Amino acid sequence: MSMNEIRRITASSFVRRTGLAALLVCGVAGCALIHENGTPFAEIRPEQIRLAEAIHLARDRWPSACWWTRYGDQQLSALIERALADSPTMVIARTRVSQAKSDVQLANAGSNLQVAAIGALDRERVSASGFLGAYSTTQPLIGATGPWYTEGIVGLGASLDIDLWGKQRAQVAASIGVQNARLAEESAVELEISTDVAQLYYGIQTTYQLINLLEQSQQVAAFAMETHNARAARGLEAQTLTEEARAQQLAIERQIVAAQGKIKQLREALRALLGVGPDDLRDIEPLPLPQSEASLPATLSYELLARRPDLQAMRWYVQSSFDRIDAAKAAFFPTFDIKGFFGVNALHLADLFTHASQQINLIPGLYLPIFDGGRLNANLSAVRTASNTLIAQYNQAVLNAVRDVAITGSHLQDLDTEAELQTQKVQAVAFVRDSMEAHYRRGLASRSAAMAARQPVIVEQVALLEIDGQKLSQEIALVKALGGGYRTD
């Protein structure tokens, strides 16, 4: 509180404010009028939050918390737990939550009693033409020893805003809504990171399996090339067949090199996600792919909204926007505050701590918006528009969430059918391979024929591996689309 404010408080008197009640009655009648209230958009209807009846997997359930543990893979669990603890993205999300908590405390502090210690020393020369002109000369009767004075003031100043219309409460509620949204966003980031880690991890494991099959195919191709080369050397066949076998072997080698490069790329993506250095990520041991356990709940409806953290975050932002609208409406009404001061104030520093220098001020105040140039209506229109935008974004996000579940569930259904058909195909070509090897053992077929019969089996196994990898990827995507075990009322 500046010296001029203290001097204004000193000049005021409680008696002059006895007409406050009358001013209040007139003020409520004369405050600015609301012209830009607007109409809120409607939220999405329940019938739009459901799946088509044709989309239904064999198992019916929602994902569980720590959903990745059902795979029983210690490597995967360790990677996800490390990412959730140390990932830079996760650190940013937690920092945003802390910031929102501070904003709530800041908004809440504005509605509490504010008390400040005041101390000031003012060395001034009084103007002979000013309000205190009598003090510019020496007049002992009034204590004037001008024109120079050393004025001092020491005491406590207090102020309290009386929130009759709920403006401050609405602002606090809006800040709490943002805080809750940030908490939901933190869960959404956890879900995003855990599913991304799982996708990268099983991308690496699938590529390991692919390399294993390609190496088997390379052995068959190498044997074929050696056989054709030996025959060509004896003049039993043309060199063309040798070169064809060599071309096939080189094509398989190229596939192996590409697969090894893919593992390096996936590993680097995983390292960046975890936020670790090149030497801090241990080698990932090859393991068989787990069996798919994808499932869909029997119905979605509004439960999807409670299980998707990103939707909960948007819903809290919408709720916060409603509170901001309430605060904008409350700004049209009169505001009241009470200011007070208790301490000592003296024109002469030597008299500062005397009993006669004690000062007490109690000043109720009224602020009444009457003509504001349209500022309050413009603000209300802006917050209403922002709220409607959030509602529209929320409705679209809900539809997108239902779409993600539907598309992923439908794709998984198709992949289940494809996997079943491809398994039968692998079994068919494997029967041919086993038959040819049996003939070879009995001397009824050549070794070349037996080895050549292995190649179609490997080709079909690669195709089945690709389907299994897609199934696992889509299963993780479905876990993400269903909220990954997140649940809120």
Automatic annotation (TrEMBL):
Q: Per its UniProt record, what InterPro entries does this chain match?
A: MdtP/NodT-like, OMP_efflux
Q: Which GO terms describe its cellular component?
A: plasma membrane
Could you cite one Gene Ontology molecular function of this protein? Answer: efflux transmembrane transporter activity
Annotated localization: Cell membrane; Membrane
SUPFAM superfamilies listed in its UniProt record: Outer membrane efflux proteins (OEP)
Q: How does it sit in the membrane?
A: Lipid-anchor
Keyword tags: Lipoprotein, Membrane, Palmitate, Signal, Transmembrane, Transmembrane beta strand
Q: Which family does it belong to?
A: Belongs to the outer membrane factor (OMF) (TC 1.B.17) family.
Alphabetical list of PANTHER family matching this protein: MULTIDRUG RESISTANCE OUTER MEMBRANE PROTEIN MDTP-RELATED, OUTER MEMBRANE CATION EFFLUX PROTEIN
UniProt protein name: Transporter
